[in-house]
TrEMBL record:
Record's protein name: DeoR family transcriptional regulator
Listed GO MF terms: DNA binding; DNA-binding transcription factor activity
Highest taxon in the source lineage: Bacteria
Domain HTH deoR-type: residue ranges: 3-58
Annotated SMART domains: DeoRC (SM01134), HTH_DEOR (SM00420)
Protein keywords: DNA-binding, Repressor, Transcription, Transcription regulation
Pfam families: DeoRC (PF00455), HTH_DeoR (PF08220)
């Protein structure tokens, strides 16, 4: 069997089963595990999967830059943002993450909402500037341009002094076993700090991020009380999370 054929079969299995393991693949292909691991390494380098111990998971598609991602799945993101905005009650303190879906959340907040929004996203802060009833707290740090958020020790230190009712998390991967993940180490640390300082974490995830994984784990899936997905997200993709007790909100 040619290398290209093996790789196509690996990707087919990944799409069908949600994960692949090196040992069963080597037996099915009649090659060594080292050969399969090499295939997995090469596919990972091409951004087509995320390697994990013993095999691989689907890779998150959220690799474009911030401007490029704004045009991807814009209707779904708008619907998710609209549903998330309805969850913030007057008087609450809410963390809003960075990312293109978080921008949609900010755009759909009611103009008369009286609440406190804490964000490490300059883009979200600017989006909310016209909301005179909102108290807006901006967390500083080093700007991570891919997501247009601040990261680093300064951001984490500032978050340690705030307790929020809700945290609206953006992710690049949501997987029942691999948990919540993102593609940058420092961003993962900041998101972890946000989870620790909020009473409830709500994940904003368009369907292409479900059952996918990125390199840096934020937390286990049990950190999320709710995952908001677009209305058309297939039941087969959300069922594993519901089985674990996570509420699925369809926008």
């Amino acid at each position: 069997m040619l290398t290209s054929q093996r790789k196509n079969l690996i990707l087919d299995a990944l799409q069908r089963d949600g994960q692949v393991l090196a040992k069963p693949l080597s037996e099915a292909f009649g090659v060594s595990e080292d050969t399969v691991r090499r295939d997995l390494r090469e596919l990972a380098a091409e951004g087509k999967l995320q390697r994990v111990h013993g095999g691989a998971l689907p890779s998150s598609p959220a690799v474009a830059n911030f401007a490029g991602r704004q045009a991807i799945g814009s209707e779904a993101k708008a619907a998710i943002g609209r549903a998330a905005a309805r969850m913030i009650a007057p008087g609450q303190i809410a963390f809003i993450d960075g990312g293109t879906t978080a921008i949609q959340l900010a755009r759909h907040l009611p103009a008369d909402l009286r609440a406190t929004i804490v964000t490490h996203s300059p883009s979200v802060a600017v989006e909310l500037a016209a909301h005179e009833a909102l108290e807006i707290v901006i967390i500083g740090g080093r700007l991570f341009r891919h997501s247009m958020v601040t990261v680093g020790a300064a951001a984490i230190e500032a978050l340690g002094h705030i307790r929020a009712d809700l945290y609206f998390m953006g992710v690049t991967g949501v997987h029942p076993e691999a948990g919540l993940s993102t593609g940058d180490l420092e961003e993962a640390y900041v998101k972890r700090a946000l989870v620790a300082r909020a009473a409830e974490t709500i994940v904003l995830a368009s369907s292409e991020k479900l059952n996918a994984a990125s390199a840096y784990m934020i937390a286990g899936i049990d950190a999320a009380s709710t995952i908001i997905v677009e209305k058309g997200a297939p039941g087969s993709t959300t069922a594993p999370f519901e089985a674990l007790g996570v509420t699925i909100e369809r926008a």
